[in-house]
Design brief:
The protein is α+β, with helices and mostly antiparallel strands. It contains 10 helices and 15 strands. It has 3 domains: 17-102, Immunoglobulins (Immunoglobulin-like, Sandwich); 109-217, no CATH class; 228-357, 3-Layer(aba) Sandwich (Glutaredoxin), CATH 3.40.30.10. Helices cover 42% and strands 22% of the residues. It starts with a helix and ends with a helix. Residues 1-17 have low confidence and may be disordered.
Length: 358
Amino acid sequence: MRILSTIALAVLAFAASAQSYTITGKTDEASNGKTAYLVDQNTAEVYASFVVENGTFKFEKEISGEKLLEVNIDKSRRTKAVVLAAAGTNAVVDFTARPASVTDNGGYNDKLAATISTIVEASNAINARADQLMNEGKSREEVYAVIGGDIEALNNLYIKAINENKDNILGAYVAAMTARQFYPTLKDIDELIATVKYAGEMAAIKTLRANYLKAEATQAGKMFTDFEGFTVDGKASKLSDYVGKGKYVLVDFWASWCGPCKGEIPNLIELQNKFGGEKFTVLGVNVWDEEEKFKAALTEEGITYPQIYIPRDNKDNATELYGIQGIPQIILFGPDGVIIQRDLRGQAMKDLVEEKMK
């Protein structure tokens, strides 16, 4: 009796922990013979594949917990869809629609589609109102004074979706979509992971948390972290060729396409012209850019201070090492290589350099 009871309990436990979901797909005739893939979007693990026949495919898989999945045809970006999967999910992915639609009889995917539809509608209304006001000659400040409340209401739609779905994959997915905006610090992201189930599994959230950790490791008072790129003429060059060599170094992470970056360049040129020499230099670090456009911008902007160019495919990307989420990011390093201050801009940057040069 004890043996039979133990077996029965084991069967019940297995049934409770591993249940199934179904994803059916519809495609056009051009996809016949191509392969549909089922992928875990957070880990990139391919769970299954299916050769499309008569414009259809079908996945039936067991699941423990809930997953963020991607369905694609021949791993193409043009034919892919996100599916929120849980035990009992019966989803239909329709690739004949543009964009692809995912429905599941009132499940997480229908709720996600409704949420996104509401957000898109609100966003379009805000953009239309902003365009109207700009055409009427209103300044940016005046426009924001009018639509600021609408923007806050839009943000609240995201927050509402997260708070109402803290215990399921939908809340985690919406949180991942908005993580950079609503969770700007390591403390915020850790609180999110602690309160929203599955949030810690989201690749976007894990990446953001890793960046926050790197940013904390490169805050004021920390020794510089070295990286390598190339000079304008293609020679290997490291940050350590400039930083930690006995002079203050103002390092500007920038790109040719970045408007705010270009806005700071006159300030950087001014500081280089005024203080450049044995005690101080400005160093540009060009990132997320094309080499030809980077070089052209040097001439267009009148930049003569030294540069390190970081190719886009550099696995040791400088911005990742410093946890940089956006540019320009301007950092002042001391003569010993210790970081004095990050996030420098405009007059505050000039005042700090002036103070150090005294």
